[in-house]
Each structure stands twice: as structure tokens, then as C-alpha cells.
Amino acid sequence: MDDRPDASRFVREATWFAGETRRLGRDAVAGLVDPRTWRALGWMLLTLTTRLILLTVTVALIVPSLALCLVGIGIPLTVGAHWVVRGEVGLERKLVAMVGSPVPGRPRSTGSLLSRFSNRDRWREVVFALTAWLLTAIGLTVALLGWGVPLYLLSVPLWGWAVESLSWPESIAMAVAGALLLLAAPVPTRWVAEALVRHTEVSVGPDRLAQMAEQVREVSENRAEILEAVRSERKRIERNLHDGVQQRLVALGIDLGIARTKVDEDPAEAIRLLDEAVSKTQTSIAELRTIGRGLQPAVLGDRGLDAALSSVVAMSAVPVRLECDLEIEPPAEIAETAYFAVSEAITNIMKHSRARTASVSVLGDRTALRVEVHDDGEGGATDSPTGHGPGGLNGTAARIRATGGTFAVTSPRGGPTTVTAMLPYPVEP
């Protein structure tokens, strides 16, 4: 019988086992020196200390205030306890940043003092201030045991010889077990810290229902802004057609009518009128193209965002430097939004800024598109309704926010002006 296949299989399995052992060893040693492990342990120590101190202050204010409220003079102490709890909650949100991301705050309470004290979130914070120290103490005890037991076992050979019932081989075996447990000690430390962080986020972070209500409010506001922008854009198109193309077409009809009457009696005048009619026709066609470009730029769908922005920049009366670096072509909705944002920004530069030069930077990866338009003009631009109106930067901001993006304008008096938009790509299901 040939045993070579079994031998090669044994070699493969032994090689795999050795590789996995080395990997686990590297991971274990890395956990001991990982700064996150020691930050987690330090965070728990610091958090327990601050929670105990603030617990003492809170109890010292709450207990007398409850007793003195019976005679009507405990309200100042109750207010003081309220602000101590608020301060502790704010400190807790910042301390969490040591081991994770800072916990966002809740919206400030408005209304009367009584309504603030009846707020459910405020009482959740009070309960957190009175009980969080206990969870921290339990978690820290578990984490310290994870370090203390291995260190104790490692130290057995140093003093085990003095214990008659403990032999030297047993001391060595306990030290080996301690070394193995020490390699695993970072795991419970980070698990406990993560659990305490989650508890803090749930207790003092934004309420999920409140977040959803805020998102609904923002969507409603964006919808109203978009509808206003659409109405403003429709009025602009109507005005451009009425004041421009329509007037030229009326004049064109008059010229053609006069030319028809002049064909027999004054052919030269008829030809002149026909030439003017041709010129007015070409002007009307060019204006219709300009208006149509504002509705849906054909070059954007045919040649992409880079080419579309190049055409916008080429028509600017102010020299504009364009930088367009796209890892992939953006989705159609994002590309169209970016195109109109740049078009509106350049239009504002030409109309209002008195700038000598401008620049457009469009950078995109596989997740988002960043658009920045900068000019050296006089500044004073704004995306508020009191600025250039819903059809201007305000309408651009509404369009961008409707896609889930962000929009910002930095434009101090005297300049320069920087318009920045961040457009995340839609997440495909």
C-alpha cells in the first residue's frame, strides 16, 4: 500500500496548523500592544472616577431638594441637580471619543421649566447618572480580573516554593497557563468597554424616534424648498420665453408680412427684411438652445459630466479653470445635480461677484462626488432665501440636499467666495 498521499495530507494539515498558530500568536501579541486596549482600560478607570464624583454631587443635591420641596425651598437645589446631570451627560459624550466616536447630543429642551423637568429624556439622563457607575464598576472588575488572574498565575514560580503543597512543576504549569490567559486578556477588556459605550450611547444619545422625526422634518423642508425652486424655475422660463423668444417671433412675423408686400414693388427692401428675419430666426434658435440647456443638457447624457462642465466653463465671461477627476462616471441624478450646481455658481460669478478669475474642482470616487467652485470676487453670496432667491443658490441647495448631500457657501464681504457641495452616490439595494 502506498502511504504517500496520507503523508502529503499530513504535511498540508501540519503546515496549515502551524500557520494558524502563528497567526493567532501574532494577533494575541498585537492585542497586548494595541493602543485601543489600553485606551479602553484607561477610559473605564477615568469614567468610573468621574461617575462616582458626579454621583456624590448629584445625590448631595437631590436628596436635600426632595426633602426641602415639602416646605417649598428645594427648587433651587433641584435645578442645580438638573444642571449637574446635564454637565455629566455632556462630559460622558465627550469621554466616549477616547474609545469610539463622540455621542451626538440631543436637541435642547424648549418651553417652561416645568416642561423641561417633565421631559422623558431628562429623566433617562438622571437614571443614567445614578446607575451608570454601578455598570462601570462591574465592567471594570471583569476587565481587571482578566488581567489580574493571568498576572497572578505568572507570579506563582516566584513564591510557589514557599508553599509546601505546591510542587515546582505545578508552579511552572500555572505560569504557562497564566501566559496563555494574558494573551487573551485584551479581549474581555475591549468587549466590556464596547458594551459600556453602547449603554452610554443608548442612555444619553439621540432618541431613535426623535432622530426619525427630525429626518421627516428635514425631508418636508427639502420638499417645500424643491417645490419653490421648481415654481421659480418655471417662472424664469416663462419670463425668458415671453421677453425674448416670443418677442422675436412676433417681430419675425411682422417682418415676413412686410417682406411679402414688398416683393413686387421693392424687391431690395424685401430681401433686406428677409435677411433680418433669418438673423432673428438664428437668434431665437440660439436662445431656445440656451433655455433648453437649462432644462436638460444633451451633452451631459451624450459625453458625460466632464464634457458638460467643460461646455459650461467655455461659455463663461470670467476665466474659469476646471479640474474634473472622476474615478467612475457618477449616477445620472448626481451628475445632473452637480452640473446645475456648477452652472448656477458660474452664473452668479458672472452676474454678481465682479471676479477676475474662478476655478471649478470636481472630484469623485466610487462613493461620492465633491464639487467646489471658487472665485476671487467681492463675496456676499448666500444660500439663504434672502440671498439670490429660490432660483439661485437657495434652489441649488434644495436640489443638493434632496439627494442626501450637503451644501455650504463661504463668502465674506470683500471675498473670496467658495461654494462646496458633497453628493453621496445612492446605495444600490
Instruction: Let me know the largest β-sheet.
Output: 5 strands, mixed
H/E element order: HHHHHHHHHHHEHEEHEE
Helix/strand class: alpha+beta
**Overall mean pLDDT score?**
75
Strand order of the largest sheet: 1-2-3-5-4
Instruction: Give the tally of structural domains.
Output: 3
Q: Report the count of strand segments.
A: 5
Determine the N-to-C terminus distance: 56 Å
Strand portion, in percent?
A: 5-15%
Radius of gyration: 36 Å
Tell me, what's the shape? elongated
Give me the number of helical elements: 13
Which helices and strands, and how do they pair?
Layout: H1 4-33, H2 35-68, H3 75-95, H4 113-117, H5 120-159, H6 168-184, H7 186-204, H8 208-265, H9 267-295, H10 298-303, H11 305-314, E1 320-326, H12 332-353, E2 358-364, E3 368-375, H13 393-402, E4 406-410, E5 417-424
Parallel strand pairs: 1-2
Antiparallel strand pairs: 2-3, 3-5, 4-5
Helix pairs in contact: 2-3, 2-5, 2-7, 3-5, 5-6, 5-7, 8-9, 8-13, 11-12, 12-13
Describe the structure.
The chain is of the alpha+beta class and 429 residues long. It has three domains: 35-206, no CATH class; 210-294, Up-down Bundle (Single alpha-helices involved in coiled-coils or other helix-helix interfaces), CATH 1.20.5; 303-424, Heat Shock Protein 90 (2-Layer Sandwich), CATH 3.30.565. It contains 13 helices and five strands. The chain has helices at residues 4-33, 35-68, 75-95, 113-117, 120-159, 168-184, 186-204, 208-265, 267-295, 298-303, 305-314, 332-353, 393-402; strands spanning 320-326, 358-364, 368-375, 406-410, 417-424. Strands 1-2-3-5-4 form a five-stranded mixed sheet, with helices on one face. Residues 383-391 have low confidence and may be disordered.
